[in-house]
Amino acid sequence: MEINENAALVVVDVQKGFELDYWGRRNNPEAEGNIAALIDVWQGTGRPVVFVRHDSVQEGSPLEPGTEGNGFKDFVEARRGKGSGPELLVAKSVNSAFYGEPDLDAWLKGAGIEQIVIVGIQTNMCNETTARMGGNLGYEVLFPLDAMHTFDLEGPFGWTQTAEELTRATAVSLHGGRFARVVATEDVVKGAVSAG
After folding, report:
1. Which one in 60, 81, 82, 185 has a CA-CA gap of 20 to 30 Å to 158?
2. Tell me: the pLDDT tens digits for 130-157?
3. pLDDT digits over 90-115, tens only?
């Protein structure tokens, strides 16, 4: 797998608030380890890393600014500022990292970045929305499905989907619809190391 020398890793909403029972059952217990591995490779090869934080405007949300849940999980916070490449912090209050501050699209384009790798929380929410927008904006989007997780969800008409079903639906929609290439962390790491 070819990983550009200036490909950006976009780490979405890996925040303490997602550790709470509030969200219900999650999938992919390996997500955090894979996210950490990708951050380490990106920082070790001097590639740009974007840390995205969700500042919820919903009162009582586990991600509300000023609460412990708004902070990044410890393994992410410990890595911030440790790379030799460029780093950006984007704060958002909606699903897409492209609708945050500062302007992610402007930052990426200003740096001549054409390829982005999206990881984080939640697979079918902010990750998927960011990937769809990234594809629409002309970026080559890689979506390592094992470097993210989501939660079981209840929808309309009494329908429910497990985290695994939602993950599969996201993968098929993004990959089949050509918004992104759904890949594995291992392949991204190999590509980044061999190119770096």
Report:
1. 60
2. 999 999 999 999 999 999 999 999 999 9
3. 999 999 999 999 999 999 999 999 99
